[in-house]
Design brief:
The protein is α/β, with parallel strands linked by helices. The protein contains 9 helices and 5 strands; from the N terminus they run E-H-E-H-E-H-E-H-E-H-H-H-H-H. It folds into 2 domains: 123 residues, Response regulator (Rossmann fold), CATH 3.40.50; 63 residues, Winged helix-like DNA-binding domain superfamily/Winged helix DNA-binding domain (Arc Repressor Mutant, subunit A, Orthogonal Bundle). It is 51% helix and 14% strand. A 5-stranded parallel β-sheet has the order 2-1-3-4-5, with helices on both faces. It is elongated, with a radius of gyration of 19 Å.
């Protein structure tokens, strides 16, 4: 499966140069370029991106909170720092990888391939649903709508949709009835929980 990449970088020259390198690789598609992080979360949902390359200086002091929130909303998102100036290593700790402005084409390709391999090995191990995904699955199986689930869990509808996508990807089940059967077989709900 091809990896879908979003680049978030204020400099058009840097963003376009990086996009050109990434697009030249077989297993990657750059699906969006943003010059600020304001609409990153919605863009991840609408493009189904699994890799975000972002310049940490665009996130400012809220970078850690911003990254934590993104990872909460998008389970399997890989976030790579695009470093254009000196940054303290503690600022770079939350990222899954780092691309530096002076990296050669070969180095960027190597780093992207490494990220893709790590993601593939993670996916093969990762058939387990997270606690949040189980909560969403149970709510879906009980016949609740996205809005009701969002209100009950105090999360956005976007986050509910993201969890549902992850559940479908991990289980391979698309229909509500299929998910209900899955939830019953895994003792997450019983017949009494179902709306008749």
């Amino acid at each position: 499966m091809r990896n879908r990449v979003i680049i978030c970088e204020a400099s058009e020259i840097i963003a376009n140069g990086l996009a050109e390198i990434i697009d030249s690789m077989a297993q990657f598609d750059v699906v969006a370029r943003l010059d600020n992080p304001e609409h990153v979360s919605e863009k991840i949902l609408t493009t189904d991106a699994n890799i975000l390359i972002v310049n940490p200086t665009l996130l400012g002091f809220q970078s850690k909170d911003f990254l934590t929130q993104l990872e909460k909303e998008h389970d399997n998102l890989i976030i790579i720092a695009l470093v254009a100036s000196y940054l303290d290593h503690t600022m770079l700790a939350p990222y899954h990888g780092i691309i530096e402005i002076n990296d050669t084409r070969a180095k960027v390709i190597g780093k992207m391939n490494e990220v893709a391999q790590n993601e593939t090995s993670k996916k093969t191990d990762d058939v387990e649903l997270s606690k949040r995904e189980i909560d969403v699955l149970v709510a879906v199986a009980k016949g609740m709508m996205n809005k009701e689930i969002a209100d009950m869990m105090n999360i956005s509808i976007h986050t509910v949709i993201s969890h549902r996508k992850n559940i479908t990807r991990k289980t391979g089940i698309k229909s509500v009835s299929g998910l209900t059967v899955y939830a019953m077989l895994n003792n997450l709900i019983d017949e009494n929980d179902l709306i008749h």
